[in-house]
Amino acid sequence: MSYIAPLKDMQFVLNELANLSEISQLPGCEDATPDTVEAVLEENAKFCGEVIAPLNHPSDKEPSFWHDGNVTTSKGFKEAFRGFVEAGWQGVQHPAEFGGQGLPKLVATPCIEMLHASSLSFALVALLTDGAIEALLTAGSEEQKARFIEPLITGKWTGTMNLTEPQAGSDLAAVRTRAVPQGDGTYKVFGTKIFITYGEHDMAENIIHLVLARTPDAPPGVKGISLFIVPKFLVNEDGSLGARNDAHCVSIEHKLGIKASPTAVLQFGDHGGATGYLVGEENRGLEYMFIMMNAARFGVGMQGIALAERAYQKAVAYAKDRVQSRDLAGSSGPVSIIHHPDVRRMLMSMRAQTEAARALAYVGAGLSDLAHHHPDEATRKANLAVYEYLVPIIKGWSTEMSENVARDGVQVHGGMGFIEETGAAQHYRDAKILTIYEGTTAIQANDLVGRKTVRDGGAVAKSILAQVRATEAQLAEVQGDEFAAMRRELAAGSAALEQVVDFMVANIKSDIKGVFAGSVLYLKLAGIVLGGWQMARAALVAHKKLQAGEGDAAFLRAKITTARFFADHILSQAGGLRTAIVEGSAGVLGLAEDQF
Amino acid sequence: MSYIAPLKDMQFVLNELANLSEISQLPGCEDATPDTVEAVLEENAKFCGEVIAPLNHPSDKEPSFWHDGNVTTSKGFKEAFRGFVEAGWQGVQHPAEFGGQGLPKLVATPCIEMLHASSLSFALVALLTDGAIEALLTAGSEEQKARFIEPLITGKWTGTMNLTEPQAGSDLAAVRTRAVPQGDGTYKVFGTKIFITYGEHDMAENIIHLVLARTPDAPPGVKGISLFIVPKFLVNEDGSLGARNDAHCVSIEHKLGIKASPTAVLQFGDHGGATGYLVGEENRGLEYMFIMMNAARFGVGMQGIALAERAYQKAVAYAKDRVQSRDLAGSSGPVSIIHHPDVRRMLMSMRAQTEAARALAYVGAGLSDLAHHHPDEATRKANLAVYEYLVPIIKGWSTEMSENVARDGVQVHGGMGFIEETGAAQHYRDAKILTIYEGTTAIQANDLVGRKTVRDGGAVAKSILAQVRATEAQLAEVQGDEFAAMRRELAAGSAALEQVVDFMVANIKSDIKGVFAGSVLYLKLAGIVLGGWQMARAALVAHKKLQAGEGDAAFLRAKITTARFFADHILSQAGGLRTAIVEGSAGVLGLAEDQF
């Protein structure tokens, strides 16, 4: 099999780090019993490994293609999507009243990871549909919910997010698409949207486009943007399909990676106007879109982790199989390359970063469940604040990390890695989109600095740091080099992160550009420290279980070694990042434009 | 123009850091007068920018292709190669007696940079031909030199290096290709070679393959390898072409990048045996190949710098042109994205690393000239030792750096970077080969640790560190934040590097795997510290010139700012690398194979 879901690590993180047992006692999460969760994960792993994962490489070689406004997806995608939705996988985290399984986000998260690890390109249709469902659940009218959500959950239809325009990129203030009210409650939509993932395809009978547009009297900028449902085919009262709407795919992009997922240019209203239905209130579109985007950003973070896991598995398999050169410590003949120290170093780096990012993301998912389902409002609010602090880190750091992991994956393969046939290069190409879409790393970092750090004077960041310090104290109580190394590097990392938070809060008013010059570095530093914190927590659990003679000893010992690797090799970067942020803005901003 | 050679920076490095004036007084280097050098660089820049650079993106879209044993190269390559060789560019650094220009390596180096920046794929034919020329100059008989070198320099023919075999990868001990003496001084060669760059093409009338093979009585392992000339067409006494030799291209690879350069599988001897001529003595092939490889490794390092420069130029152009979002410091409308701090940070990081690697490589080229041309043997020897220490760093660090720079180049373009049409993605794909071929970074690092560091007890490394310390002392004499930052980070970096050298020398015997677990990190640390050293030297020169009112003030001030950026953002990583090397081997080596 080209992908075997890391169920053991997933279960460990769910149970030991992300408090599944607590989450499953929240109102509305009661279905997430240990047995159910185990069964869901095992079934999902089986489906993803057997049905989706084998499509990944062939679909890269024969991507989706455009013809006369239609898009034919890669061989096998249509059938796999049927299997996916019929097994109920689109609905894992969505409400049972609309046909979903109503499981907590924490349980959906490993499912999402498995799906994306199997094929990023395939999984995107589910990710975008999730986003559309979330937006409609949040802001749709009862009638819209009743009409649109169930077919999205059952996979009869799929969803898209239409934000970007040729002139607007990430700057939504520049959106120009117009929505003109028709007096009957509907609107006519006119405009061009680009970079629309699965904006056209042949895997479902209808596509529900969620489109940002301006009404005629809307104020300028982001405060004048509304959200519209623009279905590819209009939907009759009884839910059957009506006329073809004036929303057409005029081309798809030729991309570096995720080639099997069609990235559409959509033209709305070239033939009289595309019929659209306002979601929620006028001019609140950006707010609704942000709900959807936060979910999507978390999802893209999971893509990074998923891709990293798959690249790691591929590299491990090659390193165990490929025999070349003698062992440094002396052997008579050539050995498999996993015996060579630098190959080992790359594999450990891939593994450690993937495990750390997984742990942080799952913990984040659990916080999201607490934020939505906990009976106590103050507890909900406190958890929401921490979750929202983590979202840009989970998105930004996990995807930046996945680029490095995919790169190391090619490197482990040596010359064979550069040959497309091998498949390692696909991961390297695919990874490059993850730090760009749903907001580049810089946009995540702006969010982290602006809305999540300086706005509350660093309070949430400091509250997390207090928890990190508690873990440091626990590390001090355990004997052994591994735990000493973890404690040393985690303490240095948390100190660096605190200094950076203080620096940002202190300087945001007097030197805004100097602060933002370090924003991405701050995001990376936070990812490293919080990822390292999770690895340290994991090592402490592993130690305790080993002491008690519980669990899989080889797995638990590997966890401690991996946590130690993370401390020495990844956490140790914290000091350099601190210097670059706190000392480094003069170098960033010193040149005049014409000196470039 | 898609590429404008950075002549100002090149001249600055040649004259101020690499001591061109000293080099040009060496015996045999006298032609490198300031006027000649300036003219050579300007002409080369013109030719590369106007003729080669425009081929780069189209040839990626329509790469070379194989048909019935022949390879048709991308449109325009054949004509461009004619122009290249007719202008004498293949011969810049080769002896005048064989038709070359006889200029020092230091002057050839910027020419090589410009050629590779224009098109890596195109330039590879010249790089491999250079390697063949070097090998024949070193080890060829007088008759072989007379017959083969001039046509290689004039571009009538081209050269290849045939090392890799399907089962052998980087492990030359495993080479199986056989060479059977025919009793007439010739050999019949039988075997398969893979990954042969320009192993077949239509740009010249003959191809001179240099092939590693074993004679029947050769000892096993690397001590039984000999080097053979195996021309595609046999060459008659008078230099005219004879019969087609039994060396055939059976396929070319479908690669992630450098798609326009054909990477051939060559089959020798399937039809009776390929006629080959021994170069030098039997069983000394590896030694000769290493001469060629050291030159080629330096050349691949230059490829990294060249690609980084081109990716930087592309990103700068886009960042100045693309208008999006308001300025953070407040502006009424959207601004070009070069005003956004994180875009600026990425551009500075690309720029600073490219300039540092350029400076280090050019300084290395100058040392090579001293090592070959200085009249005093002790001076030659001392410079050779430093040059040889630098070669794996120039190769390994410059290419690892170029991956990051090409990655940032895509990132600056945002979503457009992921679209192949834009061209930034090509650099990202092309870059990935550079850390692999001519020896992966790990192989460079093994060379750096084994042959270049521990063998002499760290003596050469320490001699270089003494020079770094002298620069630190000079930094202390200059006022200002920039120089204080440079001094702080350079001192921390050189201390870290010294500790690592001591660690390696002290532990190589007792813990060889623990030492090599940090080999690539040591290579990166050495690159950062020595690159930072060159940037500090450059800043000192710039300061002195500004004080004296000499030179281009904007350029010189930019150099100081860029050096400061390098100190705060790149040199600051030294401490983390030190920790990972000195503390980190337990984490690298701790897992058993079945724990992966």
Question: TL;DR of this structure?
Answer:
Two copies of one chain form a homodimer. The first copy, chain A, contains 20 helices and 14 strands.
Output the keywords:
Butyryl-CoA Dehydrogenase, subunit A, domain 2, alpha+beta, 3 domains, Acyl-CoA_dh-like_C_dom (chains A, B), AcylCoA_DH/oxidase_NM_dom_sf (chains A, B), Acyl-CoA dehydrogenase (chains A, B), 596 residues, homodimer, flavoprotein (chains A, B)
Structural class of chain A: alpha+beta
Total individual domains of chain A:
3
Radius of gyration of chain A equals 24 Å
Highest CATH level, the class of the largest domain in chain A:
Mainly Alpha
Strand content of chain A is 5-15%
* Fraction in helix of chain A: 55-70%
CATH architectural arrangement of the largest domain in chain A: Orthogonal Bundle
Oligomer: homodimer
Largest interface: A-B, 106 and 105 residues
CATH H-level homologous superfamily name of the largest domain in chain A: Acyl-CoA dehydrogenase/oxidase, N-terminal domain
Distance between the termini of chain A: 49 Å
CATH structural fold name of the largest domain in chain A? Butyryl-Coa Dehydrogenase, subunit A, domain 1
Mean pLDDT of chain A: 96
Shape of chain A: globular
Q: What's the total number of strands of chain A?
A: 14
In DSSP terms, counting alpha (H) and pi (I) runs of 4 or more, how many helices of chain A? 20
Domain Acetyl-CoA dehydrogenase-like C-terminal (chains A, B): 465-590
InterPro entries (chains A, B): Acyl-CoA_dh-like_C_dom, Acyl-CoA_Oxase/DH_mid-dom, Acyl-CoA_Oxase/DH_mid-dom_sf, AcylCo_DH-like_C, AcylCo_DH/oxidase_C, AcylCoA_DH/ox_N, AcylCoA_DH/ox_N_sf, AcylCoA_DH/oxidase_NM_dom_sf
Family (chains A, B): Belongs to the acyl-CoA dehydrogenase family.
Cofactor (chains A, B): FAD
